[in-house]
Every structure is written in structure tokens, then in C-alpha cells.
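User: My instructor asked us to take a sequence, write out its structure as C-alpha cells, and then describe one feature of it. I'm not sure where to start. Here is the sequence I was given:
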Amino acid sequence: MPQLLPDAGPRRVIAASNFVYTVGSGLFLTAGVLYFTQAVHLPAAQVGLGLGIAGFVSLAVGIGVGHLADRRGARGVYATTLVVQALATAAFVLVDAFWPFVLAVCTATGAKAAGLAARSPLIRHHGGDRPQEFRAYLRAVTNVGISLGALLAGWTVQVGTVTAYRLLVLGNAVAFAASAAILLFLPPFAPPPAVRGPRWIALRDRPYLLLTVLDGIMAVQFKVLTVAIPLWLVADTAAPHWMVSGTMLANTVLVVVLQVRASRSVDSPEAGGRAYRRAGAAFLVSCSLVSLSAGAPVPAAVALLLTAVAVHTVGELWHSAGGFEVSFALAPQHATGQYLGVFGLGAGLAEALGPGLLVALCITWGRPGWYVVGALFVLAGLAAPPAVRWARREQRASDARAPRPESARAV
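Assistant: Let's start with the prediction itself. The C-alpha cells for your sequence are:
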């Protein structure tokens, strides 16, 4: 299927590295928590607490490492984050108590957040005229890789022995190390010249920070599929439990097939703002359909849930496309890593706070909570276009001031 691969060269190297990395991620996403509870025998409450601590610790890491990638070269910094993640993941096999677990998982999660920021200058430099579209392609690759990793993890869960779980962890670490090794085939490039002015300019960019917050609210939608819908399906509907896997499979296939196509029409920050608005409306419709599945007969519940997932996935495609566009287009060339590190704070907060919020509203409160969550998405979507207009005004004013470049080694 040559048409599904980037042209030979840097983009193919980045895609290959990303694919190997996400196969490893799929292994751990599927069975990582089970490893710590079943093989290490940590209480589930301690595992949840440790993962929450790691999520908050990782929030600020991406900004600093992204700035380092801007100034010292993205390839080496990104490869280093992958090596650190590989070593921290391998250390999971040595964990035998809560605090060693916290140390290892904080290191691994921090390296993951740092890697996402450090990779951004690579995507921008090698992504051609439309790095946002290349980023969308990588997201499709990510879904394929995670799906394959999840299938491999199913063997571990089925066997259920300590040895099987340790092999899973080591396989995850090997995938991260292999991903770093593949980057050696990527030609290095000089970082763009620094610009006079404050070092942490992303933290002073108020419209960009507002868009980060709005994207963080929208990013809670990822947890709707992985947390809220599975819990709701099992506890509140008559749908068969295998539908949990069915909904995830449907979402994955649609993202793999449609993400690049959805991103092609989002070709400006203004189009990105409108994509956010459409996404919010789609999420409201999806949440409403999920709420109606409670108490419905089995065929109706299945139909409502599948339709809800399809509509939700359309919103997810628009949300992702809008995020790719505004995060890159509104970031200065010389500070891509720093800006994308800041933009990742929104998704990081959604990762840390989203599950608890959705459980409280959608599962504990029940049907009204789904409408509240949908309304939250709509409000975030409606706020995006004016936030983009504000950011564009600030961007034009900054371009008009045009500070002169310094040495590429300036920090």
C-alpha cells in the first residue's frame, strides 16, 4: 500500500519511529495497570494515585524540554526523551512498592510529555508546506500502532502470569528504544535563529494560553470513549458487554481512515476555530444519544451507542484537525517546541482530571450529567473562533515588530 506511506526520506523515518513507539504504547495502555495490580500486587487505589501524581508532574516538563529542542536541536532531544522513557519503563520490572512505582512512572510519564513537545519542531521542519497535515497522518499511524499493541497485550492478559506481564513491560521498553534508534536515520538540522526578547514567550501569549485551555476542555472527549462510555454501557444499558470493544474498534477504524482527509479542509487558524465549533456540536449530539441508551431495548441500545460513537468520532476528527492547525500556525517558527509544550498542558490536564469529572457527572449523576458534559464541549467550541481571531491580531502585531534574530545558540 505505497500510497499510505510518506515519500522516502525524513517523513518516512519519523512515521516509522512513531509506529514502533505506538505499538509499545498500545501494549502498556491495554495492560499496564493490570501489571501493577496483578504482577506487582499494588492496591488499585495506590496505582491510581501514582498515575495521578505522574500526570501532574509531567505537565511542566514539556515546556522546558520543548524550549531545549528549539535551541539545541530537536532530533537529539527527542531521541533522548525516548531513551529515558525506555529506561524508566524497563525499571517497572524492579518496582516492588509504592514509592519506587511513583518514581518510575513519573519519570516515564514526564519523558513522554517531553517527547511530544520535542518532536514538534521535527514535524514542522520536515512536514513540508502543511506540517499540520503530516501531524494528522501521524495520528492515523498512532491509532494503527496502538491497536496492534493492544492485540499483543491481549495475550498477556489471557496468560496472566508474572512472567508474561514482565515480558510485556520489557517489550514496551524495547519498542521505545527502537523508536529512538530509528531516529538516527533522520538528518539533523540547525535550529532556527533565536529572537531577542523574553525566553518563555509562550507563557506570555495570552490568546494562545486561552486556546490551550479551550483545547484542554475539548480533550476531555478522549476520556468519554475510554472511561465514560464503557462504564455507562456496562452499568446502565442492556447492550452486550462486548460492545465496549466494538465501540473502540469503530472509533479506531474511522480515525485511521478519515483523519488526514478531515485535516485537509482545515487549512488556516480561522478554519481551525470553526472546526472546534463543529466538534463541540457533534459532541453534544453524541452525549445526548449515549444518555438515551439507558433503559432502551438491546437492539435500540446497540444502535444508539454505535451512532453516538460515529458522531463522536466525527467531532474527534474536527477537534484534532483544529488543534493541529491552531497549535502550529499560531506558534512562531523559532519557538515551536516551547509553544507546543504549552499547548500540551491542556491535554495533560484533561488526562489527569477528565476521568474523575466524567465519572462524577455521567456515571454518578447519570443522564443529566451527559447533557452537562455536552454543553461544556459546545461552550468551548463556541469560544474558539473569537479566541483564534484574538490570537491572529496578536500574531500580526508581533510580526510587525519583527525583532532581529540572534545566534542559533542563544538561550
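For the description part of your assignment, you could build on this observation: The chain has two domains: 2-185, 201-399. Try explaining in your own words what that tells you about the chain.
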